[in-house]
Design a protein that fits this description.
This protein has 6 helices and 12 strands. It has about 210 residues and is of the alpha+beta class. The longest helix is centred in the N-terminal third of the chain and has 9 residues. It is globular.
Length: about 210
């Protein structure tokens, strides 16, 4: 068990589904066309931003979903070359593009649909120059990608870009193993849930109810 276990707590009462976290992630990590590491889904109707139920008893709630950086990640267990691995110091689930052989077994094993993507071709971009942080590893053809919890920023003692970009202050990041951290205090005082807890992965992303 690492001394640090970084995690994210998302307040579903504050989240307004503005997609700022998703766009900030895409820019910061210089993601190519069609690739999103963070996405927003609506818990309500079948389409984005549509509520469920009948007026005036409607219901709508947003969930922002990315890699859950599980304490017991199913993806790590199935990767045959160690390209998907959990950092022993922080608990962050990482991806080594240079080792990845494109077998996509991690995608098949992950219970959280859509949090990983595969580059079938050379990455293509909307602009002719790179955006985001210069320390982001170059994207490659025939590899799996996912949220890195902005590893390049963590290495410099900074928080992930989606945290600082959220205009509603709905996202909090910190050490789940530290009872004095903001994330631990929120979980101690608010009811919360994890996605698919029955899969035994113990995600490091929590949603406040």
């Amino acid at each position: 068990m690492p001394n640090i276990r970084y995690g994210i707590v998302i307040d579903t009462k504050r989240c307004v589904g503005c997609h700022t976290c998703a766009v900030a992630c895409k820019c910061e990590n210089n993601l190519s066309k069609g690739i999103w590491w963070n996405r927003v889904v609506t818990d309500g109707g079948t389409d984005m931003d549509t509520p469920s139920g009948q007026f005036p008893n409607n219901h709508k709630k947003y969930y922002t979903i990315s890699c859950q950086h599980c304490e017991n990640p199913a993806c790590v267990k199935v990767c045959p070359v160690g390209a998907t691995y959990k950092d022993p110091e922080t608990g962050v689930v990482r991806q080594d593009y240079d080792k990845c052989i494109g077998c996509r077994m991690c995608m098949a094993a992950c219970p959280y649909t859509g949090v990983r993507s595969f580059n079938w071709e050379e990455p293509k971009y909307s602009v002719e120059f790179s955006v985001g942080d210069a320390d982001v590893p170059p994207h490659q053809k025939h590899v799996v990608e996912k949220c890195t919890m902005c590893w390049h920023k963590l290495a410099k003692g900074e928080e992930p870009e989606c945290i600082s970009a959220c205009p509603a202050f709905a996202r909090t990041w910190g050490d789940l193993n530290d009872p004095a951290s903001d994330v631990s205090k929120l979980l101690a005082t608010r009811s919360h849930e994890q996605l698919l807890p029955d899969r035994g992965t113990n995600p490091s992303v929590y949603y406040l109810l």
